[in-house]
Design goal:
By secondary structure, the chain is of the alpha/beta class. The protein has a single domain, classed as Aldolase class I (TIM Barrel, Alpha-Beta Barrel), CATH 3.20.20. Helix content is 34%, strand content 16%. It has a six-stranded parallel beta sheet with strand order 3-4-5-6-7-8. Strands 1-2 form a two-stranded antiparallel sheet. Helix 1 packs parallel to helix 2.
Length: 226
């Protein structure tokens, strides 16, 4: 999905649009509306569902669908989006939302979202977003209370590990102590991942968290859309 309510300049992926150099996350092209011309608009749910059916027949199985962005839950109340999501759930597919956890979902109005998996990729101080913008306790509580399958996922680096990482994560763990915690190294290329992966791995071992790698970057490096 395209667009996000955060920009995360602290992740320091450098790119340029219209002659302006900017900093953001590694999926800046799905966040910054300067790239909107490259986004695909889906307005016909039935046609897109037919496309999905054909794709599933072609690969021969029903895959685990991960809906990411950008921030996918910006579209949670969009009728086309919900219709397509509902089809996936009713077909028995596993669907994961990769979300920053700031969007308050109306689970009464859109009850099938209770069947999704939520990867709560909450942004920490290294994102350089204001705390009030990157942490929405009410939205997090709503997701945690209304769903059966959620986990925390944090993008961290060596510098944060040496300062406030465990304190920031522990504060969020207090909201839902039983949720698994995944930690992933900051990196928009193989080189930048190598700069942080060992520190993040050791941090996970120390605190009984789960290390999450960025396999697509290991394999494809900076190639977009994979």
């Amino acid at each position: 999905t395209g667009a996000c309510n955060l920009s995360c300049p602290g992740f320091k992926t450098q790119y340029s649009t219209n002659g302006t150099v900017k900093l953001g996350c590694d999926t800046y092209f799905a966040v910054d509306k300067s790239f909107k011309r490259d986004w695909q608009t889906v307005s016909d749910a039935a046609a897109f569902i037919e496309h999905l059916k054909n794709s599933f027949r072609e690969i021969g199985y029903k895959p685990h669908i991960v809906i990411t962005g950008g921030e996918p839950l910006l579209y949670h109340s969009n009728s086309t989006f919900y219709t397509i999501f509902s089809y996936l759930i009713k077909e028995g597919l596993r669907v994961t939302f990769e979300t920053n956890g700031t969007i308050d979902i109306d689970f009464n109005k859109y009850p099938l979202y209770k069947e999704a998996i939520f990867a709560l990729s909450i942004k920490l101080s290294n994102s350089q977003e204001l705390r009030a913008k990157r942490i929405n306790i009410a939205a997090l509580n709503s997701i945690i209370q209304n769903t059966q399958n959620a986990f925390f996922k944090f993008t961290i680096d060596d510098a944060l590990i040496k300062t406030t990482a465990i304190n920031e994560i522990s504060e969020l763990q207090a909201i839902a102590p039983n949720l698994p915690v995944y930690c992933m190294p900051i990196g928009d290329s193989r080189q930048t991942i190598w700069m942080n992966d060992n520190a993040v791995f050791d941090f996970c071992k120390k605190h009984n968290f789960i290390y999450s790698d960025r396999l697509h970057i290991r394999v494809f490096d900076t190639t977009q859309g994979v």
